[in-house]
Every structure is written in C-alpha cells, then in structure tokens.
UniProtKB/TrEMBL annotation:
Stretches assigned to coiled coil: 444-497
Sorted UniProt keywords: Coiled coil, Membrane, Signal, Transmembrane, Transmembrane helix
Organism of this sequence: Mucilaginibacter conchicola
SUPFAM superfamilies (alphabetical): C-terminal effector domain of the bipartite response regulators, TPR-like
Transmembrane domains' residue ranges: 418-440
Protein name per its UniProtKB record: HTH luxR-type domain-containing protein
Molecular-function GO terms, alphabetical: DNA binding
Annotated signal sequence range: 1-24
C-alpha cells in the first residue's frame, strides 16, 4: 500500500533535479572550468553557464554566483542567443534552490531574448527550459508545446550538444505520457530518447535512454499485466542501465538516476515477483540506499527503500520489524528540507497501517494524526505553490501585454515619424510654391482689395438703407398694434358700460315691481281695515287694526334694514352664502345682520316679534349651516366674515 502511493510520483522526479556525487562532480567541474577559462569571449558565457549548472549540487550558492557572472558576460557580448542560454541556465539553478518565482522571471527573459536570436541551438535550449518549467508546474500541454518547439529547432543540426538536448527533450515528453497513461506515445518518445543518446558523448544521456525505455515497458505492463514479456523487457533495460552505471559511474554526473533505477527494480521485484526473490530486491534496495545517502537530494529515495523493506516485513507478518524500518526511514529524512513532508506523511501513513494490522489501535491513531499533520503541511505548501503560480502567470501575462503594447507603440511611433517626415516635406514644397506665386499675386491682390473695399462700402450703404426700412416697418407695426389695442380697450369699456346699464335696468325693474307689490299690499290692507270698521265691535276692531298696522310697519322697517345691509355689505352676505353652500334663507341673513350689528337674542326677538327661544334655535341652525363646531362662537365667526369681506 505504501509503495503504490510513492513509486509513481518518484519515477521521474529525480531526473528534473541533479544529485551529488563528489568524485564525478569534481572531474566534470574541473573539465568545465578549463573550458570556460580557455574559451573565446563569445563562447565564454555559455561555458560559464554550463560550469554553474555542474556546480549547483556541490555548492548551490557558488553556482548562482557563477551563473550571475555568465549573465554579465552574455550581456557584454550583446548576442541575444547567448543571453537566452544564460538566462535559461540561471533559471534552472534558481529552481534547484526552490525559487520558482525568480526561475520563471529569468526563463521569461530567456524567451524574450530567444525571440530576437537566429542561433537555433541556443534558442532551443531556452525553449527546452521553458517546457521543463511547465513540466515541473504540471502544465503538460504547455510543456509538450515548448519541448516540441525546442526539438524542431535542432532536429536538422548534427551536433553533440543538440543530441544531448534532444535526448532530454524526448525523455521529458515520454515522462509526460507516462503520467497521462498513453503508453504507446511514452514508448515512442523513449525510443527517440535512446536514439538521441547514442549520438551524445555524455554518459548521463545513455543511462537516461535505458531508463526511459525500461520505464515505458514497465508502464505498458502495468496497463496490461497479462503480457509478462513487457515486465521482462522492463527489467532487462533496468539492468542494462545499472550495468552501464557500474561501468561508467566516474563519467556520470546525475548519480541519483542510478539510485532511482535500483529502486524501480526492487519495486518490480516486490510487486510482481514471488517472496522467494526477496534477496534480489534487498540487493537493489541496498544499492539505492548507498547512492541515496551520498546524494544531497536522496531523501525521497531513502524513504521509498525503507517502504519496500517494511512491505516485505508485513508480508512475513513481522509487524515490529516493519514498524522499525519505517521509523528508521523517518529518522533518515528527519533532517531533510520541508519539501519532503509528503514523504514523511506517507511513511506515517505506512506506520498507521502497520499498527492497525498489528491491532494496536491507539498507536495507529497516533501515527495517523502525525500523517494528517504532515499532509496538512504538504497541502498548505501545494496551495501556496498554486497561488504563487497563478500570481506568476498573472504577472507574466501583464509583462506580455506590456511588451505587446510597447511594440505597438514603437510601431506607431515609427509610422508617426514617417508621417511627420512626409508632412514636413510636403509643407516645405507647398511653402516654396506659395512664395514663388506671392510676387505675381501681390498686385492683383491690391487691386482686388480696392474693389473689395468699394464693394464693402456699397454693401454697408445697402445695409443701412435696409436697416432704416426695417425700423420704419417696425414703427408702423407698433402703431397698428397700438391702434388695435385702443380699439380693444374701447370695445371692452363699451361692453362694461352696457353690462352696467343692463344691471341698473334690471335693478330698477325689480324696484318698480317691489313698489307695485307694496302698493297692492297697502291697498289690500286698506280693504281689510275697511271691512274691520264695518263690524259691530269697535274696540275689537281697533285692536286688530292696530296689530295689522304694527305688523305692516315692522315689515317695512325690516325690508328697509335688509336692503340697507345688502347695499352696505354685499361681500359679507356673499361670503356667508359661500360658506353655507348657498343654503341661507333671507331670515338667516337677517339674523346674521343683527348679530353683526351687535344685538343680543332679546333685542333680535323684539325686532322680529318672536320668542327668544326661537332666536336660540335659529342660532343653532346657523352654526350647522356655517359648518361651525360645537365649541365655536357664532358671533366671532360672523365678525370674522365681515373682516374678510
């Protein structure tokens, strides 16, 4: 169980980063130092960058200093291809130090320089490192695109360095298809890697070719376990790779590849061979441990070795030994960088499984808690890496947009400069033509000016005449409007007088009618008096006559008072009627007039010849008609109407 989770992730990881082997490194570093010192000024930056790449496993800080010196030398040459190579190499060094953001920046710089270079070999290396960076990030499509572009640039160049590039390119692509489970393409690129390695003078490339083929057969077998011959072919190439390493270990720089090969062989023995071949697996585990312990970055290999040994112990039901082996593995990776937390978490998960199989639930829980702790660190690191990668992609997109914008602006400025040149030339030509024609047109322009002045004078006179005519027409129009206004006012005055006469006539007719009625009423009263005097009872008749005369006098007096009040306060009665919605009778108006005169209920009753109680009832009805409240004062309300009238 432990191996199923670890081995697929480790299979090609060691190829992406170099490991240390002191003797081989010393030979290669010494050789590259001599080459760099004796190289021409143009070739020295590339040789220095290769020296830095070879030094990184022995002394990473020194390698970065050498890489920085290579960039300075490249800038001095001014060659875009050389700068692209040195930037890409320096980005690769930064990745070994875990500085992915800075690595991406330098590889982007390499790509910009590569776009300006015609040296396909150096440009191909920049694209190789671009594809490698995307492979490390997990962007398989971008990685394949970059790697194939690098391969296309050097496929027609027969050079030792290009064969090495192409071997590495095909190995990377093969590893991508291994992860993608496309075993046919994986095998095809593994064969291409082996073919390129045969043309390369570097022993590492040959070992890489054997390893790629072995792993392609192994992947094919795991997808079709019925074909046992695929496993046999895989083991044959793994053994060839180990034999080649044993024979050429002094020439091989990437020693960790050998430990990975040994680990893959022992893993194959464990998974697909009987327990009786445990000694063979143990043999290759020991080789992997021996090489891994000599390597700075061999902690992952060591952990996997102890994982295989613990799995064998579990098969034998020796739980104590399995637990001890895993604890030993954890102890060996304890001092490793935080980057191997994934290895620690898997070892802890293996310990939890061992304790569970042994029946020790408490210890299994403790180991599982430690597994969760380590895996949490791994998850946080992966999350941070994703955030940083997204940030880098965003900044890279911004840089690309800025570069495109600057290019567009440069093109625009270039076109604009040409436009300015054309405009300037045309302007000079036009100015010359104008100056040449100025002498001939001067006299004509003076004559035209005189003619124009005369015409302007005539135009001004015409305009003045038109203005005077317009003023005359305006005055005539105003006079006509004034006359029309006077006629309108006269007509309105006549209409008002006619209306006044009409009102006066109507009033006189009403007065005449009232007088006639009064005379008729008097005549009727006289007839009544005549009849009364004819009776026998003189005293009774006298009282009746006196009462009739008093009533008639009161009626005349009331009529005079009402007419006097109506003439004196017409607006007052109009306001009352408006408030009462024209519901007031003549008697109601008389009550209001007496109240306005300041008479109390008794005085009003005496004048009208009624009981005071009737006056109180009349006041109550008036309050209702005038829409007054219960607490409102009728006298004050009527006084207020008189003030507003």
């Amino acid at each position: 169980m432990f191996l199923k989770k670890i081995i697929p992730h480790v299979a090609f990881l060691a190829i992406l980063f170099y490991a240390e082997a002191t003797s081989a490194q010393s030979l290669i570093i010494d050789s590259l130092t001599r080459v760099a010192n004796s190289a021409s000024p143009h070739d020295r930056p590339v040789a220095t960058a290769e020296l830095a790449r070879a030094t990184v496993e022995k002394n990473a800080d020194e390698a970065l200093k050498i890489g920085g010196r290579a960039i300075s030398l490249a800038k001095a040459t001014g060659d875009a291809g050389v700068k692209a190579y040195c930037y890409a190499a320096y980005g690769h060094l930064l990745m070994q130090k875990g500085q992915e953001k800075r690595c991406a920046v330098y590889i982007d710089s390499a790509m910009r320089c590569a776009a300006k270079s015609t040296n396909k070999e150096l440009t191909a290396y920049a694209w190789l490192r671009k594809g490698w960076l995307e492979l490390v990030r997990g962007n398989d499509e971008k990685a394949i695109s970059g790697l194939l572009k690098a391969n296309a640039m050097v496929e027609n160049i027969n050079d030792k360095r290009t064969y090495s590039y192409r071997a590495l390119i095909n190995h990377y692509i093969s590893s991508i298809y291994a992860y993608g489970s496309d075993t046919l393409k994986q095998h095809r690129y593994a064969l291409a890697c082996m073919a390129m390695a045969k043309g390369s003078p570097y022993a590492d490339d040959t070992q890489l070719g054997y390893m790629s083929l072995a792993h392609s057969f192994f992947s094919s077998f795991e997808h079709n376990m019925g074909r046992r011959e695929l496993l046999d072919s895989s083991m044959r190439y793994y053994r060839k790779a180990m034999a080649f390493y044993q024979k050429n270990k002094e020439r091989i720089f990437i020693q960790s590849n050998a430990s990975l090969i040994a680990l893959n062989i022992s893993n194959a023995y464990f998974k697909y061979y009987p327990l009786s071949l445990k000694d063979s697996a143990q043999h290759y585990v020991n080789i992997a441990l021996e090489i891994g312990r000599r390597s700075k970055n061999g902690k992952e290999i060591i952990a996997n070795c102890y994982g295989i040994l613990s799995e064998y112990a579990l098969r034998e039901k020796n739980y104590a030994k399995a637990e001890q082996l895993l604890l030993t593995g954890i102890g060996e990776v304890e001092s490793a960088a935080p980057g191997v937390d994934i290895t620690r978490s898997r070892l802890m998960l293996g310990l939890a499984n061992v304790a569970e199989q042994k029946g020790d639930k408490q210890k299994a829980l403790e180991y599982y808690k430690q597994y969760v702790t380590y895996y949490g660190k791994v998850f946080d690191a992966q999350k941070l890496g994703i955030v940083q990668q997204l940030e880098e992609e965003y900044h890279a997109a911004q840089r690309d947009n800025e570069i495109a914008r600057l290019k567009e602006r440069a093109d625009y400025n270039k076109r604009l400069n040409w436009l300015y040149v054309v405009i300037g030339s045309v302007s000079i030509l036009v100015l010359g033509l104008l100056l040449s024609s100025y002498h001939y047109k001067l006299k004509a322009s003076q004559q035209q000016k005189q003619i124009a002045d005369q015409e302007n004078k005539e135009i001004r006179l015409t305009a003045e005449l038109q203005q005077a005519e317009a003023q005359r027409l305006t005055l005539e129009k105003q006079e006509a409007e004034l006359q029309a206004s006077l006629l309108e006012e006269g007509r309105a005055t006549a209409e008002a007088q006619q209306a006044l006469l009409q009102d006066r006539t109507e009033w006189l007719e009403k007065e005449l009618l009232a007088g006639t009625l009064k005379i008729e009423e008097k005549n009727a009263i006289l007839e009544i008096l005549k009849e009364k005097t004819r009776g026998g009872d003189a005293e009774h008749a006298a009282r009746q006559i006196g009462r009739i005369i008093n009533q008639n006098l009161r009626a005349d007096k009331n009529l005079d008072e009402q007419q006097g009040l109506s003439h004196i306060h017409p607006a007052f009665f109009a306001s009352l009627q408006e408030r009462a919605d024209n519901s007031l009778t003549r008697l109601d108006l008389k009550y209001c007039a007496y109240i306005l005169m300041g008479l109390d209920n008794k005085e009003i009753a005496t004048r009208l010849g009624v009981e005071p109680k009737s006056i109180r009832m009349a006041r109550y009805r008036l309050k209702q008609k005038l829409k007054l409240g219960k607490d409102d004062n009728l006298d004050q309300a009527i006084m207020s109407f008189e003030k507003t009238a």
